[in-house]
Design goal:
alpha+beta; six-stranded antiparallel beta sheet; binds fe (iii) ion; Metal Binding Protein, Guanine Nucleotide Exchange Factor, Chain A; three-stranded antiparallel beta sheet; globular
């Protein structure tokens, strides 16, 4: 009997050790979408952004026309949010709008950008924001080229360009 008690004393904690050890569900519910809203304090944003990026992304500033890094960039590649790295635009939809800011006729993934009315500066415009971090990217206008007729007018400082690498020549 004493042996049995000793065995039970040793075995019970082991048997129940895994009971409360279930991993939290990290995947979205079936049919749901993954929402990964990034929220940071102003102090945290200031730590990871340059003053120019902070002014545009977090204070809805606008860089001066024809001064940004990408308004005339014609390289093939992808543009990501400078605040959080979300994929935003492809060079495939970039066009020369002559407005002095990088312009795209479509977003790479519609869910990655958020549109909202903007009545600042006595104008009625539609603001474009990163859907993940809420960073201000620019504005969208209905004077773009086919096939969408839209013009995403985006601040260079809000985005980061990554050039598409050329595939190595298979013959060599
Ligand atoms: Fe973002």
């Amino acid at each position: 009997m004493k042996r049995l008690l000793i065995l039970l004393t040793l075995a019970l904690p082991v048997a129940f050790a895994g009971a409360g050890d279930k991993k939290p569900a990290c995947v979205p519910a079936k049919g749901g979408t993954m929402t990964n809203q990034i929220t940071k304090t102003d102090v945290e944003w200031r730590k990871i952004l340059t003053p120019e990026q902070y002014h545009v992304l977090r204070e809805k500033g606008t860089e001066r026309a024809f001064t940004g890094e990408y308004w005339n960039n014609k390289e093939p590649g992808t543009y990501y949010c400078a605040g959080c790295g979300t994929t935003l635009f492809s060079s495939d939809t970039k066009f020369d709008s002559h407005c002095g800011w990088p312009s795209f006729h479509a977003a790479l993934a519609k869910d990655n950008v958020k549109l909202q009315p903007d009545h600042s500066h006595n104008m009625v415009r539609t603001e474009v924001l990163c859907a993940k971090c809420g960073g201000h990217l620019g504005h969208i206008f209905d004077d773009g080229p086919a096939p969408t007729g839209q013009r995403y007018c985006i601040n260079s400082v809000s985005i980061k360009f990554v050039k598409k690498e050329k595939k190595p020549d298979a013959k060599k």
